[in-house]
Amino acid sequence: MSSPTSPIPPVPPVPGTRPAPAAAPRRPWPALAAALVVGLVVGGGAVGAAWALDGDDGSPGAADDARAACRALDGFEEADYTKDGPAGEIAMNRFAAAIVLSASAAAADTEHKPLAEALREAQNQHARTFDLADPKVHKPLTTARDICADL
């Protein structure tokens, strides 16, 4: 006879089954999230302080954007604009690049506003006529090229 205080033997596992996995330990998510936020704030502050102390934000200036717009405009072949294939794509992209870069230059320095206005006018007139040879398109393009010649 067995005594009432003897332990009960464990039940043997059923063949072909896996034992139940142990419960995953609880992770302190709020503490990890707070640590991540603090790390990002401190790291971002350090990078910002380094940039402030350096004095250079790493971005090109208005004059650089204006010169880049003029380089794009210089490489823009109006005759290629309506062509299929790479020549047409290059022409469209250079025209668009000149417009966008001139707008960036004008936003940073009003000295470059006439270039941006001329290219924007060429773009607007082209959207109306779909003809780069139209005088309403050609005149502002010529104005933009003249401004570029003086940069």
How would you characterize the overall build of this protein?
With 151 residues, this protein is mainly α. 63% of the residues lie in helices and 0% in strands. Helix 2 (62-74) packs antiparallel against helix 3, helix 3 (86-108) crosses helix 4 (113-129) and helix 4 runs antiparallel to helix 5. The longest helix has 26 residues, at 29-54. It is elongated, with a radius of gyration of 34 Å.
In summary, what is this structure?
The protein has helices at 29-54, 62-74, 86-108, 113-129, 135-150. Helix content is 63%, strand content 0%.
Fold blueprint:
Layout (H helix, E strand, L loop, with lengths): L28 H26 L7 H13 L11 H23 L4 H17 L5 H16 L1
Helix pairs in contact: 2-3, 2-5, 3-4, 4-5
Keywords:
151 residues; 5 helices; elongated
The termini sit apart by 109 Å
**β-strand amount:** under 5%
Helix-residue proportion: 55-70%
Largest sheet: none
